[in-house]
Write a structure and sequence with these properties.
CATH superfamily of one domain: NADH Oxidase
Distance between the termini: 42 Å
Structural class: alpha+beta
Shape: globular
Radius of gyration: 20 Å
Helix content: 25-40%
CATH architecture of one domain: 3-Layer(aba) Sandwich
Number of helices: 9
CATH topology of one domain: NADH Oxidase
Oligomer: single chain
Number of strands: 10
Strand content: 15-25%
Length: 263
């Protein structure tokens, strides 16, 4: 696929952009020279599919140090949530109620009303524009019809865009555990819509999209922890299959993050 970059607008000639091209645009949105962008991208592209639990940190042994206390304050609800937050894959098959799901939605995709006529998202945005789209695949949420929904934070509604939920979700989301999906309540999917941000940010909208998706997912995780909901963030999935089940026809919209919810 050929991509033409011209600040401040990003044009895409074809409808498909694979992961390598998406990441390559991330480096093009930096201040590195084109030669350095190509060199760094080539070095990263040669890796992958290796098992690695932890990333080694830089070693500054011999420099002056100031130790920090790795203990959170007690008797405060917020710090308890931070301390308890973890990825829990042990779903029991107890399904969420819609009243619980909507709290997670308004914590991540909702808006605060602060001034007349102006809305502010509860999720921070790296560049000031909220260029994300939210979706929820409902499998077993009580009080919500089974299907795939679009989250419209402007109208504060969930639109049922697809009544069919795929049976092989484990293969679509690269998490080959169909039993876990059967026990889950549903899946959040965050996509970025470049048509909402490219006019202002140009190709840097790629970088901001990844940052904003991280902010949004963190709110989902923290709200889930507060509500005693188990959550598994997933970054790996078949992009084309996800776009198909979400019925995304916008050539500038790309799914970039997902999370399984359960109890």
């Amino acid at each position: 696929m050929e991509i033409i970059i011209s600040y401040p607008i990003l044009w895409v000639k074809n409808k498909k952009m694979n992961e390598k091209e998406f990441i390559k645009n991330f480096f093009q949105s930096s201040n590195l020279t084109p030669v350095r962008q190509e060199e760094i991208f080539a070095r990263i592209a040669q890796f992958g599919a290796k098992s690695k639990e932890h990333t080694p940190k830089r070693d500054f042994l011999g420099l002056a140090m100031q130790k920090f206390n790795n203990i959170l304050p007690k008797f405060d609800g917020f710090w308890k949530i931070i301390e308890k937050r973890k990825t829990d894959r042990n779903f029991k098959g107890v399904f969420l109620k819609f009243s619980v799901l909507e709290k997670i939605i308004v914590s991540s995709f909702g808006k605060n009303r602060k001034e007349m006529g102006n809305f502010y998202h509860r999720t921070p945005s790296a560049g000031g524009l909220f260029g994300l789209q939210g979706y929820f695949i409902n499998q077993n949420v009580q009080g919500l019809k089974k299907g795939i929904y679009y989250i419209d934070e402007e109208k504060e509604v969930l639109f049922l865009i697809n009544e069919e939920v795929p049976l092989n979700l484990g293969k679509i989301f690269f998490y080959n555990d169909e039993d876990l999906f059967k026990k889950s309540s549903g899946i959040f999917i965050i996509s970025t819509d470049m048509s909402l941000t490219a006019d202002k940010y140009g190709v840097r909208s790629v970088r901001f999209a990844l940052l904003d998706a991280g902010h949004c997912m963190q709110n989902i995780c923290l709200a889930s922890e507060k509500l005693n909901v188990k959550i598994i963030p997933i970054g790996g999935f078949d992009e084309e299959k996800v776009k198909k089940i979400l019925k995304i026809n916008n050539e500038l919209e790309f799914p970039i993050y997902s999370a399984i919810l359960g109890k």
